[in-house]
Specification:
- The protein is an alpha/beta fold.
- It contains 15 helices and 22 strands.
- The protein folds into 3 domains: 125 residues, NAD(P)-binding Rossmann-like Domain (Rossmann fold), CATH 3.40.50.720; 120 residues, Rossmann fold, CATH 3.40.50; 94 residues, Alpha-Beta Plaits (2-Layer Sandwich).
- The strands form 4 sheets. A 6-stranded parallel beta sheet has the order 3-2-1-4-5-6, sandwiched between helices.
- Helix 6 packs across helix 14.
- It is globular.
- The two termini are 24 Å apart.
- 43% of the residues are buried.
Length: 467
């Protein structure tokens, strides 16, 4: 696939690296020649220095031959205009734009070409702030979870959580899980990470204290399964403090204030006033989230969950560490610098999120070969989960008509479940794959993603997997 990426920031650079590894022809456009040189030094890609929304620069980048344009600069207007030009001048087939401003996002009709042929020609609109907000809300809904990812339109969820010594299943084989669960509750543990190393689970695998366990199940069944992995039910987060009143902080408070006690701290007086005028039940505090005296004054020790989501990594880290030290049960911090994430997670902050990583993960769903419905990067890019559709027939496909146990899968994947006609079927060796089945697959090595996509596409039927 020929892909043009506008912007060599964290999102653009991460995408370029992932797409280049998957044998796509990638061109990156940016004003910063140093960023482009760094990319070109380590990746087999083309680069073009210049303004991303200038017609001559888009022409140099090869938009006329591009299958896809991903506009991921820091400027909404640049991204929107670039997509418009790519559509009108170069007839680029698919256009994706990253848009942050609520002024645009609050008017989806601007981009809805099904209702208005004069709408802005963007096929996929990506809002990092919206994605991060939804991600955090899922973590709040499942106390104790490390990651929560929806598949199949929310029918299935992949949940990661830590196994603690008090859990019923610790030091027991995975097959024992079925004996503890009600008959109608089905799940599949698709991966275990032990001391940062992947363990492909079988029925004989023993869960150890400290393991990071990934399991798939229907959304309604998740709480029951979580309770089996942890003897003591995780207390829900009723009292929540949010650091930062920007798009993410505001959206979180708006979504939570009806059923939670929410306090929001922001250092900008004007922004604090605007947020206070728009929210009904949230307590707005003007101040510095890194101010220990302020946190103590606001009874930080009574807070169940502290979420720091300012646009400053250092402020988020310091306030998160301070909140944890002052007695907050659970801390989530937005940290985009990946070198920071490795240092702080599990040491002082419970969950460190990266808006750029979440955005990149979402974008991958639109760039993969085959009919890939969704892709989620996990463990900071070390693993991946994907939802892919089986197309073709027994005559044209290597998997349709075969049982899961008969298919020669790559060694580093686990098939979690199949969605067939809206019904969730937990995977097992004797389950036969049918045309149009949606499969949820966990990959401990993301490099296997291309092989999976090819395996599910009838036109790619070949002997590629004889390795």
């Amino acid at each position: 696939m020929n892909i043009v990426i506008l912007g060599a920031g964290q999102v653009g650079s991460s995408l370029a690296e992932l797409l280049a590894q998957e044998n796509n022809d990638v061109t990156v456009v940016d004003l910063n020649r140093l960023n482009l040189q760094r990319l070109q030094d380590r990746l087999d890609i083309r680069t073009v220095a210049g303004h991303a929304s200038h017609p001559d620069i888009l022409a140099q980048a090869g938009c006329e031959e591009a299958d896809m344009l991903i506009a991921a600069t820091q400027n909404d207007e640049t991204n929107i205009l670039a997509c418009h030009l790519a559509h009108s001048m170069f007839k680029t087939q698919k256009k994706i734009a990253r848009v942050r401003s609520r002024s645009y996002l609050d008017h989806p009709e601007l981009f809805d070409r099904t209702q208005n042929t004069m709408a802005i020609p963007i096929d996929v609109l990506i809002s990092p702030e919206t994605l991060v907000t939804e991600y955090i809300l899922q973590l709040i809904a499942y106390p104790g979870s490390l990651q929560v990812i929806d598949f199949a339109g929310g029918k299935v969820r992949l949940v990661a959580m830590r196994a603690y010594a008090e859990g019923f299943l610790v030091n027991k084989q995975i097959r024992a899980l079925s004996y503890h669960l009600p008959e109608n509750i089905k799940t599949r543990i698709v991966a275990i990470y032990r001391r940062n190393k992947a363990v492909i689970p079988t029925g004989d695998t023993v869960i150890k204290a400290g393991d990071e366990v990934f399991f798939l199940a229907e959304a309604d069944h998740i709480p029951i399964i979580v309770n089996e992995l942890r003897r003591f039910k995780e207390r829900p987060s009723r009292r929540i403090m949010i650091g930062g009143g920007g798009n993410i902080g505001f959206s979180l408070a708006q979504a939570l204030e009806k059923h939670h006690q929410v306090k929001l701290i922001d250092h900008n007086m004007q922004q604090a006033r605007e947020v206070a005028e728009s929210l009904d039940n949230t307590v707005i505090i003007h101040g510095d989230i890194s101010d220990k005296d302020l946190l103590v004054e606001e009874n930080i020790e009574e807070i169940d969950l502290f979420v720091s989501v300012t646009n400053n990594d250092e402020a988020n880290i310091i306030s998160g560490m301070m909140a944890k030290k002052l007695g907050v049960h659970r801390v989530i911090s937005l940290v985009n610098n990946q070198s920071y994430v490795e240092l702080i997670q599990r040491n002082s902050i419970d969950i460190a999120l990266s808006a750029d990583s979440i955005t990149t993960s979402h974008l991958l769903s639109h760039t993969r070969k085959g009919d890939t419905i969704k892709v989620a990067t996990l463990r900071r890019g070390a693993a991946e989960a994907m939802e892919v559709v089986a197309h073709g027939s027994e005559n044209s496909s290597e998997i349709i008509g075969k049982t899961i146990g008969e298919v020669k899968w790559p060694s580093d994947i686990t098939v979690g479940c199949i969605i067939r006609g809206g019904k969730v079927i937990i995977a097992h060796h004797s389950l036969e794959i049918e045309a149009e089945d949606h499969a949820i697959i966990f990959l401990t090595n993301p490099e296997s993603a291309e092989q999976i996509a090819r395996l599910f596409s009838p036109e790619e039927k070949s002997s590629w997997f004889n390795f």
